Amino acid sequence: MKPAQYFALISGVFFLILGLLGFFPSVVEKVNGSSLEMVGAFDNGFGYIFGVIPTNAIHSIIRLSFGIFGILASIALDSTRVYSRALAIGYGLFAVMGLFPYTNTTFGLIPIYGSDVLLHGISAAIGFYFGFIDQPGLLELGDNKPQQSA
Does the pTM exceed 0.90? Predict the structure, then answer.
């Protein structure tokens, strides 16, 4: 496996676990207080995973999707690059949106503020490297080892 494939596999497993954790009430700390009480999609399963990472049901589904996509993409180098680019663009957009008060709830659907901005930013930066900067050599693209001359 190449480093980009390891990245896709590790980030895929991480996002899969994080997405699954978002559905366990024992792990998601509910928020008490009227300041964040909302009606609609945002409130469905809203809380903080381990009291740190904001989540709701939609956000958990997105994490599950990126997790499964990452695990499947780690099989081949070309699909790893597609995954890394999608992660860089999607999570990069989420990181920027999480910085502004009017968009940090993705218009009332997904909480993407606080520590989630850092998580999205780091994921997007590493995905950007493996998707756009790191170019595999010709020898890395093939499974065959080069023949050694005598």
Answer: no
Residues paired with residue 34 on neighbouring β-strands, in sequence order: none
CA atoms within a 13 Å half-sphere pointing along the CA-CB vector of 38: 16
Question: What's the sign of the alpha-carbon dihedral 123, 126, 131, 136?
Answer: negative
Site of tokens 């503020």: 113
Q: Which of 112, 136, 123 is nearest to 67 (CA)?
A: 123
If the chain, 150 residues long, is cut into consecutive pieces of 10 residues, what is the mean pLDDT of each piece?
93 97 90 53 80 92 96 93 96 95 87 93 96 74 56
Q: What is the distance between the alpha carbons of residues 150 and 148, in angstroms, rounded to a whole number?
A: 6
